Amino acid sequence: MPRLAFGVFQPGGPRQQDTTAAVLTALEAGFHHVDAAAMYGNEAGVGDALIAAGLARDEVFVTTKLEDQAHGATEAPAALARSLERLRTDHVDLYLIHWPVPDEDQYVETWLSLQSALADGRVRALGVSNLDAPQLTQLIKRTGTVPAVNQVEIHPHLQQRELVAFHAAHGIVTQGWSPIARGRTLDDPTLEGIAVRHGCSVAQVAVGWQLQTGGAPIVKSATPSRIRENMGAWDVCLDEADLRAIQALDGATDGPASRWAEMLVTRPSWHP
Ligand SMILES: NC(=O)c1ccc[n+]([C@@H]2O[C@H](COP(=O)([O-])OP(=O)(O)OC[C@H]3O[C@@H](n4cnc5c(N)ncnc54)[C@H](OP(=O)(O)O)[C@@H]3O)[C@@H](O)[C@H]2O)c1
């Protein structure tokens, strides 16, 4: 899995053509991993970009996610089929259960219903998103299988170190969504200082920090110059003092993004 992914969530509602343009720019800029979701409403725009880019299918790693309304033994495989149709591909490289929807407690059943898609290659790897350690433990215990990935919110203000250690102990890859906290980390004075010293942008420091510490960030932009800038996060080389300073920022945000644990119980309306 290419560790740096391009996200396509569009706050305010999807515009398929904008999605297609952004994904094409991202592919040109060097992203090889597109992170989509049925819930974002723009898988068709991603599919159009995959066709228009003219790349071989195996040159792009495509992730998409099961919408919350489609949990259950029959609903989940049907939802996957609809996603593949919209994405205009016969398989996805990674399919994630977007949210455990703990109130319904169907994610284990949903997970089991997707095993046949894994077996016949429609899904190359199966993972989850936004599960905490007890939910992961339950999934592993009840199914005897381990998710390839758990995609959770990670940025300098919300580092999730315990959960990342749990993932590492179980062989689960951590993917970090909102690596710049939707812009809220951009005026952090510590990150600004590091960016000035390295002659790069704050966004590059935030994304580069995950890359350099072994993470797999998913960053979104609809702005061509920022899409290219974010790919430049690979060039940032943080030193030990930078890494220590960033580690000390954990917990610094009091905005909605830091209420991740609460969201495991109740999904707020603002969340994709
Ligand atoms: N699994 C989940 O539950 C979940 C939840 C949330 C997100 N995700 C995934 O993770 C992806 C990224 O998360 P996100 O979209 O929430 O947040 P993000 O990538 O942290 O931030 C995106 C915001 O930052 C701006 N931005 C991007 N690059 C910038 C730069 N270099 N300089 C200044 N501003 C910049 C973008 O503006 P412009 O677009 O205007 O340039 C946009 O407003 C999503 O698209 C989605 O694929 C998954």
Beta-strand content? 5-15%
Q: Uncertain segments of ≥5 residues (pLDDT<50)? A: 254-272
Tell me how many strands there are: 8
Q: What hetero molecules are bound to the protein chains?
A: NADP nicotinamide-adenine-dinucleotide phosphate
Q: Specify the overall morphology.
A: globular
Compute the average pLDDT: 93
**Main sheet?**
8 strands, parallel, barrel
| H/E series | EHEHEHEHHEHEHEHHEHHH
Largest sheet, order of strands side by side?
1-2-3-4-5-6-7-8
N-to-C CA distance = 23 Å
Report the structural category: alpha/beta
Fraction of helical residues: 40-55%
CA gyration radius, whole angstroms: 18 Å
Number of alpha- plus pi-helical segments? 12
Describe the structure using short key phrases.
single chain, 272 residues, alpha/beta, eight-stranded parallel β-barrel, 12 helices, 8 strands, disordered C terminus, binds NADP nicotinamide-adenine-dinucleotide phosphate
